[in-house]
Amino acid sequence: MKAKTDYSKVGPGIDGAAAPGRKTGPRRWLWPVAGLAVLAVLIIVVAVACGGSDSGDSGSKTEAIKTAHGPSALVDGVPRGYTHDKAGALTAAVNFIQAISQAGVGRLDAAALREHAVGENPSPSLQSALGASSDRVEHDDTTFNSVPLVATVTNFTPEAATVSVWGESISQMRTGGPDSPLGVSTLYSTTTVTLAWEGGDWKATDWAFEPGPKPEDARFPEDGPLSQPGGQGLYVFYRD
């Protein structure tokens, strides 16, 4: 008959002796060492995922990032790498509108925007918008932010998508000379971006802009973008 275990004797031994039945030796260091190894691997993975890199082939500065539907990288400050679905197209359109806004105040190179985010055959209206944002000089006391409020994919195929973005633009700048007060103005507008799936990414090919509607406008065309369900969440990624 097997003897019963006396649990009253389980525990640390006297004067540092081991408890009955417990093996001594280097095995007790296994878990701390394994924990340190896992921590080191995690640190390396995070550093690789978040760190920037310079592409030696094109001279472009690429920063790797990770979001649900893109972008997956910033190349020369331009978001790139979107998922091949409606959410990816919607995110690409919102980011492109913000990118043009940043180029318009000199915070982003319009030539880089054209190279990384515009399709092979841009429409005249898109070329005009890009031209208006070229060669701008950044001013420390000028701010312009484009905030998406409702973004809607009005047409979608695997090869092309049309996205309507109703949003608010907020600008802050001097009202006169260098010593004049700062003024703030707002504008509600609707921007429509057409995109094509080229080179494994969504690229802008057409652009349309019109003011309004304002929030207090209770009526809008029944067949307009705001009469359709908008995308969920904020599809904003622009950052310094």
From the structure above, extract its key features.
four-stranded antiparallel β-sheet; alpha+beta; 8 strands; single chain; 4 helices; 240 residues; Nuclear Transport Factor 2, Chain: A
Describe the 3D structure:
- With 240 residues, this protein is of the alpha+beta class.
- The chain has a single domain (48-217), classed as Nuclear Transport Factor 2, Chain: A, CATH 3.10.450.50.
- 24% of the residues lie in helices and 29% in strands.
- It has four helices and eight strands, in the order αββββαααββββ.
- It has helices at 30-50, 86-104, 110-117, 124-132; strands spanning 52-54, 61-64, 73-75, 78-80, 143-156, 160-174, 182-198, 201-211.
- The strands form two sheets. Strands 1-2-3-4 form a four-stranded antiparallel β-sheet.
- β6 and β7 form a beta hairpin.
Mean pLDDT: 78
Annotation, overall tally of beta strands: 8
Secondary-structure-based class equals alpha+beta
Largest sheet: 4 strands, antiparallel
- The run of helices and strands is HEEEEHHHEEEE
Radius of gyration, taken over Cα atoms and rounded to an integer in Å = 28 Å
Using the alpha-carbon principal axes, give the shape: globular
Do you know the CATH architecture? Roll
Strand order of the largest sheet: 1-2-3-4
Please indicate the count of domains: 1
Q: Which regions have little confidence, pLDDT < 50, spanning 5+ residues? A: 7-34, 36-57
Strand composition percent: 25-35%
Helix content percent band: 10-25%
Ends: how far apart? 76 Å
CATH class: Alpha Beta
Q: If you consult CATH, what is the topology? A: Nuclear Transport Factor 2, Chain: A
